[in-house]
Each structure stands twice: as C-alpha cells, then as structure tokens.
Amino acid sequence: MSQISLTFPDGNIRQFDAGVTPAQVAASIAPSLAKAAISAQVDGQHWDLQWPIHGDARLSINTMKDDGPALELIRHDLAHIMARAVQEIWPDVKVTIGPVRDYGWFYDFDRAEPFTPDDLGQIEARMKQIINARDPVRTEIWSRADALAYYEERGEPYKIELVNKIPEDQDLRMYWHGPWQDLCRGPHFQHTGQVPADGFKLTHVAGAYWLGDSSRPMLQRIYGVAFKNRDDLKAHMTMLEEAAKRDHRKLGREMGLFHMQEEAPGQVFWHPNGWTIYTTLQDYMRRQQRRDGYVEVNTPQVVNRKLWEASGHWENYRENMFIVEVDEEGAREKVVNALKPMNCPCHVQIFNVGLKSYRDLPIRMAEFGSCARYEPSGALHGIMRVRGFTQDDAHIFCRLDQVEAESKKFIDFLAKVYADLGFDKWRIKLSTRPEKRVGSDEIWDKMEAALANAVTAAGYTYELFPGEGAFYAPKLEFVLTDAIGRDWQCGTLQLDPNLPERLDASYIGEDGAKHRPFMLHRACLGSFERFIGILIENHAGKLPFWLTPRQVVVASIVSDADPFVEEVVTALTLAGVRAEADMRNEKINYKVREHSVGKVPVILAIGMKEVEERTVSVRRLGETRTETMTLDAIVAELSAAALPPDLR
Ligand SMILES: [Zn+2]
Ligand SMILES: [Zn+2]
Hints:
By secondary structure, the protein is an alpha+beta fold.
C-alpha cells in the first residue's frame, strides 16, 4: 500500500498508509485524543473522522474546544436528529433539506397538518432520547440507482428530486444517525451522544416554499438554535428576548419614524421623525467626508444596459437589477435600462471626463447614492434588508503606492464615526486572495500588504480570512458588535484594479505615459436605512440626544401655563433644540406616558408654580424622579447636548 505524509499543526510530519482516516490517525496519537476527536481539518477542509485521506495533506484533529467546527457539527447533526425524530413520531411526513444557519439550523417538512407548539415539545423530547441513545453515525458512498430505488421505496419525492439534481460525476454520500438515513455531504459527529443534549431548543415554525419557488408546495420549516452548553443557549435566548423588545419595526412604529406598504416592497416611507434622524446622520457624514478631503457627486438612477455590460454587472448581477424598458421616440426596439444597483460605474464616468494627471490623485469621490436591488420578498426585513437604499458610498481613485495611506485614512475616519455614534466594539476582517483569481502573485502580495499595513498603522489588528477576497483584490470588512452582542458588518474597503480596467479609466503618470488607477470602494455605515435600523436596536430607541428626532416636549399641567410653554419652546428652538409643545387638555401623567412610549428623552412639565418662578420641572426618559431647573439652565444644557459630537 502506498504511503502518504501528513503534516500536523506543530510542523511534525508522519507517514501513514494511503486511505487512513482521521479517526485512525487520532487513535495512533493517543486514546484520549481518539475519544475527544469530533472531526478534522484536511488541507483546511472540514473532514469527517470516517473519511479516508488519499494524498499528502496538512491535518489537524478538532475537538469540542474548536468552536467553529464544533458548532457546525452540533447544528448539522441536530438537523438530522430532528428529521429522524419527526419521522419516528409521524412516519408519513416527507423530508427535504435541513441546512445550518446562524446560531442553529432549520429543516423543511411536508406535512398536511401544521406543527403546533406542543408538537415542537414532543419533537424536542424525542431528540433528547436519540442523543442519549448514543446511536452511531455511519456514512457510505452510494450509486445514483441505489439512492433512487431507496427513496422510491420510501416515497420520498423531494429526495428523488435532490438526487436527480446532483451532477452525474459527483458521488452520492449517505449518512445514518442510528437507523435513520439522509442524503448529505457531511461531515458529522461519530455518534449522536456527541451532541450536547441541553444546548439546543426548537424555536418556531414558518412556511417555506420547496426550493424557494412559489409555484412549488408550501413546506413547514422548523427552526432550532444550538450551542455547546446550557449557559450559551440561555444567553442566546435572553439576547433574543432583548432583540424582540428592541425590534426596529416595533420601535419605528411607536416613535413614528417610517412605514412600509405592499405597493413598494422593501422601500421606506420616511415620516418626519424618521427623516430627521436620516438627514441629521447624513449632514454629519457629509461634514466628516468634507473634513477628509472627499468631493461629493450625484449620478443617474436609470442607466442604459450598455454601461452595465461594460462594468460586468449585466453578466454577473442581472438577477438583482430592476430593469426599466422605455419606448424611445423613433427607436425600433425598446431601450433597456437598469436602476443602478451600485454607484461605482457612474463614478468612473465622472473620473473619465477630462485628462487626469498623477498630481490629481488621490481623488476621493463620495455620493449618497440611492440604489435599487431586487431581493426576494422573503429576505426583506423592516428597513434593515430592503430593495431601495442609500449608501454612504465613495470611491478613491489612486495609485497602488497610495493604497496603504488611503486605507489608513479611511480606518481612522470610520473609527471616529463609529465612536461618535456610540459603538466602541468593532473589529476588522481581512480577506485575501482566492484560488480563482486574476493578477500576478507579485501584485497580490503588494495589495494584501497595503491593507494589512494600513490596519496596523491605524493601531488595530485584523482577523485573517484566507481565500475570501474578490477574484481581483483583497478587502477589509468592519464588523460592529451592538449592545446585546450581535454582530453587524457595516463598513467595507474593497480594493479594485478591475473596474478601472473594464471602464478604461486612466491618468497620465510622472513618466508622461498613461496608467490605470486603482479604486477603493468604501462605505462606513453601509446604507442609511440599515444603519438607522441598527442604531435604533442598539440604543433600544433611546438614540444619542443629537440624533433624537423629538428631543424635548414641553407639556402644560394647566392651561394657564400655555403662554410660558410657548416661550420655553421658542427659547429651545432658537438654541438649536428640537422642541414641541403639548398643551392638550390631558392629565400630565397621560402626556408623560405617551411621550415616553415615543422615546422622547426630555419632558418639561409646566404648572403655575413653574410659571411664577420661571422654572421647568424636568423628567428624563427612564427616570421616575423630576428635578426643577431654571429656564436658562435647561436651555444651556440641552443646546449643548443637541450639538453633533463633531461640532462640540
Ligand atoms: Zn447532513
Ligand atoms: Zn463601488
């Protein structure tokens, strides 16, 4: 039998018979490792302990201490265990597919009656029995004919369709969790007992079309979440409860910020309060960009397909584009346009007007660019996942030797913005060259070093994501952690030598010859819509005072106080505070309650005592006590707080 060399994480190299499995390798190292092993990495690929290794490779053994693989296996094995439990309880239910997702998994079932909450409890109990039985997990490669015969016999039409979809030259892998079998790519645990029995929970059921196709049957999707232990699960459930309380759709309604309706799916009707947040944030971003030497432009919404063909979007992105056909006068055929899904090609058009010299670079071209992208209706989520949105977009045209300094400058920019907006926890991901790529290794070395050095020079560290870059260049991504521990990727910095090439952008170099500029696509917030959603949820509606749409309500206790109420509102308004009067003939407690639901941070109550003393009774959101302040003192305090952080 031929021999292969396996290289271990510590650099050790050992010889094994070709076809050795990671389980055998682990056993040859130590029985304790064989017992603790859950899977392996073979040349970076997640590998089942039962799969043979046929050639030289780098190998490491995963245990439950390796979070990434451990959680993937826990969630994936639970998908199988749940499907088995469902078919054990209701043998007539048809199974389909069940992938891993954030925090858990789902599985789609075809069953006439809907699953009830009681059913979920019953399924969960059966799953625990299966886990406690420590049933072995087995895997085999099957022929297409055997697989089809097996599923025909069992009456599993969805599985037959899946088998027929797999390309002819690809192996069909089967997995058994105890007696229950599923078509699956793997990897999996070695026995069901490796799944922590107290780390998971079935959360809810929702309808989902087979293969996401609305002309196909509606299935029932059962969702579950899973972690390594009970404490992690509990922390997650608490986070979900907290997230539900902060849901921007609920708060958006209560605070009167926006609405959406079915005539314009995925697009926002901004109400005055919401638009105040939006424009205040936009004004702030505009000041930051001016300070950092950006020029601002604006480009068309409806753009002929010719430009999208030239940019490559027509070929690669068309299913996400809204197509607009127009009967141009005198034209024999309809003219085909698309709503812009991105601003980049239009910015290159501006760059391309007039001759550019190396002395003009870098050019930092910003646009609050309104874009439209088709998203399936099932993917839409409030103002966070939409079809119409505005990016805080910019493109920096520069030479390769300027990329590092420009990238550092952007990281500094972004750090200041995030701090001003109340986010102090964020991290940077660096995605480097993928297998399939264009450009020489020499250029890739330079591009990756420029981004990596920029991060270091800005005083940060990065997590490396090898192979995750675009086919033409590496990128940085900036991930915020919000107040309840959720991650949001908002900022990006994508280096790009490709689009300038496609759209023939050039500048005259010091040598008098034409050169291609590099582009940096960069956004800090991502889109205003999504970022405002994140802000609302992060702050649970209690936005930083300067961003709050309704900053102060001045409420009368008796109608004789009305003239002083108006005087206070005027004084605050002149001092730059968004203040409004509430002189309705209602009890003060009623007014306070209503404005608290609307998340108004400061309510000033005024009765006859306040009128006589020229004071106000101040009630701050979330506090029950009130304090008395003079008119001058409250105006001074609130006008200072209303200033955006960059103007203080
Ligand atoms: Zn599977
Ligand atoms: Zn771009």
